[in-house]
């Protein structure tokens, strides 16, 4: 059977391509491919342009369309021409009846303005990135033509293992006339240890005409935990009661998460003066960051302490200072003290002594401040003599309240003066008894000798213990105590009195 040239080369109806106006001469644009089912000479396909073009040429055997002239003058234009594909038999015997006609296709070339070279450069930050300073690298995208708006259509993303685990992210930082800047940020804070990571950065720019790609690599270092501390909130403030004993906890500078991440951190208190160590009643645990009381706190001496704590990180040989303020809270921790000797103007009272005569003036002091240092006096006497005396609770002056009848003369008894502060809570601080404040006042007939001087009778105390102490409060009291109170904390104050005189009446 003789082979016949009975098939045409098979061509698609059209081709299209986009090129830049500055494409180099002899650069390929596209390839026309037209297979022919025939064999031998009948299947050999040749390509040619039906209408001549001054800018393009096609290779007769490969079908590759190439640029043969500069396209600078054709920017933003579409060029359309026709390409034919014929088998060899038709070329040799064009008038033969058995030779099919050539196949043709339409080719459209879109000429874009000149291609701008895009440059991608990524640079890691010098100190490395940390959990609170997440910037690891800067990627700058620039072009040869500053007017290229395609830069704004470019996107960067990470490839490889780091992108798969979402350990780092890329965020657009800013756009400039000369390019765009992208930030590579640490996303997985668990990597906040000393480590180095190789990142692959891909660039894709789609300006509608052609998709341009580029890539870059950058080696970033995640800094050790020396940089995990951020003191943006200012000084650290703690409150400490002046009643806290030595060894009590004041506050914590480190949370458990930071301790786990920053295990190489050591803490210490920084001395700013030679006398600071003697007067600073605090210490800090170098590992846990817990501040403890190391000396006596006294609100009346020092209301607050300001000092620095240094976070020393051995891995990177760096230190960070944190300002710490401890505010001392006022407590009612001091008892009133009645001053001695007592200033008594008159100790012998006669029936002729006028009412409202000042017999004695008591003075007391309290080291506490404010309400805790506000003092009040009270009088405790035997029932038979209670109506004869009045003690001003603020001034501490003892007055004769009523005239003494002659029947009460030649008797001696004891007067108990109490001084309490006005602190809170009430049961702890409002009933401070001064046991050494007994004072004896003698009632006498006022005998006078020939010289007109007052003769004081001898005082003979009654040594009879006839009464039992009696509690001022209820017989049964329930006291609630928190489980976290420190040693030395006063949980209750019990008050009692005794009607006996002298030491027998001391409770």
From TrEMBL:
Presence of the UniProt keyword Membrane in the record: yes
Domain Cadherin span(s) in chain numbering: 11-111, 265-338, 349-471
Gene Ontology CC terms: plasma membrane
The molecule here is called: Cadherin domain-containing protein
GO BP annotations listed = homophilic cell adhesion via plasma membrane adhesion molecules
Organism this protein belongs to = Soboliphyme baturini
Q: Which residues form a coiled coil?
A: none
List the SUPFAM superfamilies hit by this protein, alphabetically.
Cadherin-like (SSF49313)
- Keyword terms of this UniProt record: Calcium, Glycoprotein, Membrane, Transmembrane, Transmembrane helix
């Amino acid at each position: 059977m003789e082979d016949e040239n009975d098939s045409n080369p098979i061509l698609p109806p059209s081709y299209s391509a986009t090129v830049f106006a500055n494409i180099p001469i002899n650069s390929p644009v596209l390839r026309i491919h037209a297979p022919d089912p025939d064999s031998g000479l009948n299947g050999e396909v040749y390509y040619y342009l039906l209408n001549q073009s001054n800018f393009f040429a096609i290779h007769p055997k490969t079908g590759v369309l190439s640029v043969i002239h500069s396209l600078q003058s054709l920017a933003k234009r579409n060029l359309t021409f026709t390409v034919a594909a014929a088998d060899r038999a038709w070329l040799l015997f064009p008038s033969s009846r058995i030779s099919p006609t050539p196949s043709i296709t339409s080719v459209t070339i879109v000429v874009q303005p000149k291609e701008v070279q895009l440059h991608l450069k990524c640079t890691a930050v010098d100190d490395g990135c940390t959990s609170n300073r997440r910037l690891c690298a800067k990627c700058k995208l620039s072009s040869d033509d500053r007017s290229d708006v395609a830069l704004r259509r470019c996107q960067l993303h990470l490839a490889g293992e780091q992108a798969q685990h979402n350990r780092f992210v890329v965020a657009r930082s800013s756009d400039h006339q000369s390019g765009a800047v992208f930030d590579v940020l640490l996303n997985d804070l668990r990597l906040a240890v000393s480590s180095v990571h190789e990142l692959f950065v891909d660039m894709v720019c789609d300006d509608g005409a052609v998709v341009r790609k580029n890539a870059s690599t950058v080696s970033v270092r995640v800094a050790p935990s020396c940089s995990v501390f951020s003191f943006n909130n200012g000084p650290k403030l703690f409150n400490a009661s002046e009643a806290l004993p030595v060894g009590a906890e004041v506050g914590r500078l480190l949370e458990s998460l930071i301790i786990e991440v920053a295990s190489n951190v050591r803490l210490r208190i920084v001395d700013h003066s030679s006398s600071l160590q003697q007067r600073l009643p605090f210490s800090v645990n170098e590992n846990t960051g817990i501040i403890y009381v190391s000396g006596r706190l006294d609100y009346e001496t020092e209301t607050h302490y300001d000092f620095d704590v240094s976070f020393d990180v051995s891995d990177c040989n760096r230190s960070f200072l944190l300002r710490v303020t401890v505010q001392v809270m006022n407590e009612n921790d001091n008892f009133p003290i009645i001053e001695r000797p007592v200033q008594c103007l008159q100790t012998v009272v006669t029936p002729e002594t006028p009412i409202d005569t000042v017999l004695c003036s008591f003075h007391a002091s309290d080291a506490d401040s404010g309400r805790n240092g506000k003092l009040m006096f009270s009088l405790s006497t035997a029932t038979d003599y209670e109506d004869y005396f009045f003690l001003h609770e603020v001034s501490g002056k003892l007055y004769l309240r009523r005239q003494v009848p002659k029947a009460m003369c030649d008797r001696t008894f004891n007067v108990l003066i109490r001084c309490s502060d006005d602190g809170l809570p009430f049961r702890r601080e409002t009933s401070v008894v001064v046991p050494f404040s007994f004072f004896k006042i003698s009632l006498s007939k006022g005998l006078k000798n020939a010289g007109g001087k007052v003769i004081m009778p001898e005082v003979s105390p009654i040594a009879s213990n006839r009464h039992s102490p009696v509690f001022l409060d209820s017989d049964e009291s329930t006291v609630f105590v928190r489980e976290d109170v420190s040693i030395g904390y006063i949980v209750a104050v019990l008050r009692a009195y005794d009607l006996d005189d002298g030491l027998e009446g001391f409770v």
